[in-house]
Amino acid sequence: MKETAQAAPALAGAAAYTRPAARLLPSPTPESRAFWTGGRDGKLLIYRCRGCGHFLHPPGPACWRCRSTDVGPEAVSGRATVAAVTVNRQPWVPGLPPPYAVAMVELADEPDVRLVTNVVGVAPEEVRVGMEVEVFFEPWTPEGGSADDRIWLPLFRPVAAAGGTDGAW
Ligand SMILES: [Zn+2]
Question: Residue 29's closest CA among 69, 58, 56?
Fold first, then answer.
């Protein structure tokens, strides 16, 4: 028997997103930990070079542009644009039922920074290149892990599906 999840009211054109039973989880490194845990505070943390001001991803010990080692995580807006998308129809991950959209998104703060993510809250086949999306976070604790191992997966959804409450900026 399956429990019926209470879906959030869907907006026109939006598809209700239901958290899957499982996801492939990353193993954070000292440098990527901020990226995977910034969602605890609702922040998408991307490494930024204080030498040249550019963001870089994946995080590393030095800026690939100017070689500065003065790099560290900083919050970005969380807005992005879909640069490429494919719809996965294979049940690769037990507990993560297809179809779902796997997209490469370019951050509004730094289009050179591209993340591979899922775009949800919209039918997978309706995700388009050029679509404006924004980040939200899904907390997960790895199997056998403790609260300290918790990570916040950055996922994206169409900006219009967010409820239009962003007048406070
Ligand atoms: Zn730099």
Answer: 58
**Rounded distance between C-alpha atoms, residue 44 and residue 167, angstroms:** 20
Instruction: Say how many Å lie between the CA of residue 86 and the centre of ligand 1.
Output: 32
Here the tokens at position 107 are 């951050």
The answer on pLDDT for 158 being more than 70 is yes
Q: Which of 14, 7, 8 is closest to 133 using CA atoms?
A: 14
Tokens at 99, concatenated? 């179809």
Taking a C-beta distance cutoff of 8 angstroms, is the pair 91, 98 a contact? yes
- Angstrom distances, CA of residue 147 to CA of 8, 82, 96, 150: 27, 32, 22, 5
Cα(96) to ligand 1 centroid in Å equals: 38
* CA distance readout (Å), 22 to 17, 83, 143, 151, 166: 14, 26, 10, 13, 30
Residues in the 5 Å CB sphere of ion ligand 1: 49, 51-52, 63, 65-66, 68
Other C-beta atoms within 10 Å of 150: how many?
A: 16
pLDDT digit string, tens, across residues 80-99? 999 999 999 999 888 999 99
DSSP conformation class of 107: E
Q: Kindly report the pTM of this predicted structure.
A: 0.85
